[in-house]
Amino acid sequence: MAEKFYPTKLLIFVTLLLSINHSEQLQSSLPQTLLRIKRLLNFPSALSSWNSSTDFCSPDSDSSQTVVCYEDTITQLHIIADKRASPLPKNFSTDTFFATLARLPHLKVLTLVSLGIRGPLPGKIARLSSLEIVNMSSNFLYGVIPQELSLLSNLQTLILDDNKLSGELPDWLDSLPALTVLSLKNNLFNGSVPDSVGRLENLRILSLSHNHFYGPVPDLRHLTNLQVLEFDDNAFGPQFPRLGTKLVTLVLRNNSFRSSVPAEVTTFRQLERFDISSNSFVGPFHPALLSLPSITYLNISGNQLNGMLFENLTCSSELQVVDLSSNLLTGSLPECLQSKSSDKTVLYARNCLQDINQNQHLLPFCHTEALAVGILPESKKHKDQSKVGLSTGIVSGILGGVALVALVFFIIRRGNVRSSIKNPPTRLISESATPKYSSKHLSDARYISQTMKMATVGLPIYRTFSVEEIVVATNNFDTSSFMGESSQGQMYRGRLRDGFVVAIRCVKMKKRYSIHYFMHHIELISQLRHRHLVCALGHCFEYYLEDSTVSRIFLVFEYVPNGTLRSWISADRRAKKSLGWTQRIEAAIGVAKGIQYLHTGVVPGIYSNKIKTTDVLMDQNLGAKICSYNLPFLSDMGKVEHGTSSSGSKSPSVNRSAKHEDKSDIYNFGAILQELILGRAAKSRNEVDGLRVLFQASIIGDEEARRSIVDAGVRNSCLDQSLRTIMEICTRCLTKDPAERPSIEDVLWNLQFAAQVQDAWRGESQSSEGSPGSPFEPRRLTFH
Ligand SMILES: *[C@@H]1O[C@H](CO)[C@@H](O)[C@H](O)[C@H]1NC(C)=O
Ligand SMILES: *[C@@H]1O[C@H](CO)[C@@H](O)[C@H](O)[C@H]1NC(C)=O
Ligand SMILES: *[C@@H]1O[C@H](CO)[C@@H](O)[C@H](O)[C@H]1NC(C)=O
Ligand SMILES: *[C@@H]1O[C@H](CO)[C@@H](O)[C@H](O)[C@H]1NC(C)=O
Ligand SMILES: *[C@@H]1O[C@H](CO)[C@@H](O)[C@H](O)[C@H]1NC(C)=O
Ligand SMILES: *[C@@H]1O[C@H](CO)[C@@H](O)[C@H](O)[C@H]1NC(C)=O
Ligand SMILES: *[C@@H]1O[C@H](CO)[C@@H](O)[C@H](O)[C@H]1NC(C)=O
């Protein structure tokens, strides 16, 4: 086994080597220099034994101070306070101090620990040109590493832990070719680590823990001597670093790594300590890590590693600590980790393991989470930057407000999607659109009306998000953020940095598509903005590294807080109040306007939205917003596009079916009206049709009979004319022959009429059917 290297061992070794003591008298100036150092350091207790009669070169030394002489010179100076001193007084100057030290020009080893040394590291340090080992930990050094340090060509060890040094690591580090130990823990360094570190071939220890470093780790594969890499508590990432295979200690804890862990780590035969906890690593956990011959400490907690564990896995006998908690591991805990003996710590809570004591995630979470961050190829990578290019065009096109919530999506027929490519970009057209339009124009609109985008103000404009933002917003996809899942992915609640609450849909791609494939989908989604739609605020792509295809799409929607429309009308609602009659018509108008927008506000129209009262969310003003609409690429991306070879012109069959789909939304809307009137949902299409017959009969029957079928909660507050109008339009919407169903404009006109008569009546009678604090403003009618 290769010899391990530790700084203290080196120190002792060097100390022994150099401390062949010559008792010759030092040049008389040397004691003076040392006493001056004592004075400059404000008489630290560590040096209490130094006085004018001290024989500095006697082999006597204690743990707090050591002076090593060789011939007439001092080669080593160690001063170590036993506890960290407070900063030296203001009149202390590092410049003066190092100028004094420079009178010991043969100094090879300098240890000045916990002495309260305050100030920048001066360029004068270069005068100590023989320096090989420097340890100035636990002082109050601040500022940047001086360029002059690069002149110390013999420097092997540089330890400046626990100071307040800042700035970036210099890129001339490779001018210190002998450097074997670089330890800068617990400072304020920032920036990324320069590539030159990867050329320090003698480096054995690299400790940059607890700074503000960020960005990718340079390629360290050529550091064949590297044994200790400590990068914890920074923001390195996202890719797992490339490393030499001789590592003994690898600590990447609490950074921003988001890649998978390469299987290569299982070939690091000398690995003793492996800590990648508190990152966002994904992909498989390699059980072979457990059986590495020297492994004693293994901590992968707080990631999203998955994979199945088996009872028959083998573990190294050296293992003392194994922490697998908070991942997505499945299977059973290996037997070799189950020992009850207390000499081993084994933690595995918050996974998806079977039959064990420590708390595991609930099954639904395991199922969905495992899906969400499922097995990704080795080199998965998130390339956030490339999204910018994509979205610039989109964003520039969408300066309107946005509104939304996320929930359910459908599939737009590929024919529609396809034809959208051929159409000129709708946003260009929209700029010249006139806000005045007749409903006739609307029915074959080729533009997005500005009017239709109204009232989405207050929402941020559409933009791209970085994976980091998504991760932060969802608290790393924490269980508590999980809202639910559908066939098209998982839904998470998130809070953006500015406090804005969003719903994030996470869609995992079944097939590999390049980003270009999604551009027109994204463009369409970005344009869907309407006060009665839960609109997308932005998106984020996650890529596979190898070929830059998309692995996941995150769609960020506005979060609509007030539950579904159904929860406001259904009989079994708990705490919530039921909507009054006017509020129900208002909600229906909202849904109808949303449908109208989906059909005519975008090109191509979005049909077959299959909207139910559970697909409509209520905002804080009880405004209705459709959350589940037929969003293009949530359709099965895996389907082969048969239409690819077609010329792109719409075939007659596409046209015909588009017409039917338009009317299928009308039918579903009729069912919503029915639910609003009855106060309950029909259980089947048959029941809907049966109720339609009942409605039809009651419309021509007497008022008494008509009212008797209405939800008791609104039975006495609705004006008969209003009720009849709604029942009539409801019945027409549910007509069997799609061609006979009314247009959405017709529906809207009738709803508005019903609201108007109700309003007028309510105004006259002063009777109020809503609560006194009804959130609705008196509605003003707008007939075209
Ligand atoms: C620096 O010196 C102090 C005092 O001897 C020691 O405790 C510490 O471990 C040294 N630092 C390193 C990184 O070896
Ligand atoms: C710094 O000031 C203190 C008093 O605050 C004094 O005792 C000490 O001698 C001064 N040190 C130097 C190096 O001037
Ligand atoms: C110097 O210190 C030694 C003990 O470390 C002590 O015995 C001696 O008296 C001191 N000499 C002076 C001049 O203070
Ligand atoms: C690093 O921090 C300093 C302040 O200490 C700041 O001026 C500088 O811009 C930062 N550099 C980077 C790359 O963040
Ligand atoms: C993670 O690292 C950051 C510095 O990058 C630090 O502020 C934070 O306290 C660390 N978190 C934990 C849990 O150690
Ligand atoms: C594993 O790492 C986590 C986070 O970094 C830490 O909180 C935990 O204590 C570690 N587990 C063990 C057993 O050391
Ligand atoms: C361990 O068990 C699994 C299933 O329980 C089996 O597939 C695998 O072959 C076993 N491996 C060994 C080395 O026995």
TrEMBL record:
Species the sequence originates in: Acacia crassicarpa
Domain of life according to the entry: Eukaryota
GO cellular component, one term: membrane
Location relative to the cell: Membrane
PROSITE patterns in the cross-refs: LRR, PROTEIN_KINASE_DOM
PANTHER family (UniProt xref): LEUCINE-RICH REPEAT-CONTAINING PROTEIN DDB_G0281931-RELATED, REPEAT TRANSMEMBRANE PROTEIN KINASE, PUTATIVE, EXPRESSED-RELATED
Principal localisation: membrane
Range of residues in the leader sequence: 1-25
Segments for region (Disordered): 762-784
Lipid bilayer topology: Single-pass type I membrane protein
Gene3D superfamilies for this protein: Phosphorylase Kinase, domain 1, Ribonuclease Inhibitor, Transferase(Phosphotransferase) domain 1
Pfam (any one): LRR_1
UniProt KW Chloroplast keyword: no
Comp. bias intervals (Low complexity): 763-776
Ranges for domain Protein kinase: 477-753
Annotated keywords: Glycoprotein, Leucine-rich repeat, Membrane, Receptor, Repeat, Signal, Transmembrane, Transmembrane helix
TM regions (residue ranges): 388-412
Protein name per the record: Protein kinase domain-containing protein
Family matches, as InterPro entries: Kinase-like_dom_sf, Leu-rich_rpt, LRR_dom_sf, LRR_R13L4/SHOC2-like, LRR_Rcpt-Like_S/T_Kinase, Prot_kinase_dom, Ser-Thr/Tyr_kinase_cat_dom
Single Gene Ontology MF annotation: protein serine/threonine kinase activity
